[in-house]
Amino acid sequence: MEDEPGKGLQTKVVRSDSLSVEQIIEMNPSAIVISPGPHGPESAGCSLDVVQHLAGKIPILGICLGHQTIAAAYGAKVVVGPPMHGMAIPVNHRGASVFAGLPSTIEVGRYHSLRVDAATLPKSLQVTAWAADDPTLIMGLADHQRCVHGVQFHPESLLTQGGLAMFEHFIGMAQRHQPENQPSPQGSRFQRTTIPPISISQPGAGGGAKS
């Protein structure tokens, strides 16, 4: 990600089990990235609460487990699927969300054994990408109005085509997003900020059952 040519975008990494939604609000980040990790959304620390309380107020990108966490926070079910770790597959997309400007079919790196149950996805979440050989396998989703975006694959993987562009698209959308003018849990209101994004990392991401 770049905010100036040749310069990386500064971020702050925090553990999902080390802080609360209220502490994140106090940090006032310009965006939130919820990282991959082991297990399911219920084991992702504050991540579910972050989506439930901050969607529409702070732009959110969920990757792998973060993608599943977004779906769960909106009421969808996350179910067990065939393990796919370190595999590249073709994905089709709508050219929206983080996929803007990319070829209509791209290869992405998968590292997961859980998946969002497409039959339970609420109308507030749009499917933005899916496996080329299985339209029910959701590989991207978004609540465009609230600037909440998720991808089941790893855009940072060398197996993923156009991964850097996806991060750049998200940052661009985050910069254009107007936060919902609603009170926070402390009663203050959210304002546009130039404070760097934060990345919420998951405990135990180095091992265990994968998301």
From TrEMBL:
GO terms for molecular function: anthranilate synthase activity. PROSITE patterns: GATASE_TYPE_1 (PS51273). SUPFAM superfamilies: Class I glutamine amidotransferase-like. The keyword Transferase does not apply. Residues 176-211 are annotated as: Disordered. GO terms for cellular component: cytosol. The keyword Ribosomal protein does not apply. InterPro entries: Anth_synth/Amidotransfase, Class_I_gatase-like, GATASE, TrpG/PapA_dom. Residues 8-170 form the Glutamine amidotransferase domain. This is Anthranilate synthase component II. It comes from Rhodopirellula europaea 6C.
